[in-house]
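just leaving the lab so this will be short. below you get a single protein, a line of residues and a line of whole numbers that encode the local backbone shape. id like you to explain what the token line says about the fold, in plain words if possible. thanks a lot i owe you, the record is right below:

…
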Amino acid sequence: MKTRVYIDGYNFYFGCLKGTPYKWLDPVSLIETLLVRSGAPESILDELAVKFFTAEITERAASDSSSLKDQRAYHLALHNHRQGRLQTIKGNYSVDKTKLPKSRSQIESYLTAMARIG
């Protein structure tokens, strides 16, 4: 059985790895191990079956001066070690607070403005 896995890098780190000795965890190896233990050893991860969604942290959000460098090193290590098995999809990290529109007219104004941007 073909298996695909989608990982939210932010929640994976803050929910599972932060404060542990496993910050350099190989997610592909973890998933392969979990598939065997789940009783589905016939499950296979085909090429690029693991999607790792992440965003580079900003210096404002970094917990210390080496955080950004450490994150870049981890992403590069994953890319080099798991090339062809893991696809990294980078988004944007924001520390700025935003307000969601509350009324229908605010939502329509927001959507109109976003449509103009493209």
User: Anything to note?
Assistant: The CA atoms of residues 26 and 80 lie 12 Å apart. DSSP finds four helices and three strands in the chain. The chain has a mean pLDDT of 85. Helices lie at 9-17, 27-37, 67-81, 104-117.
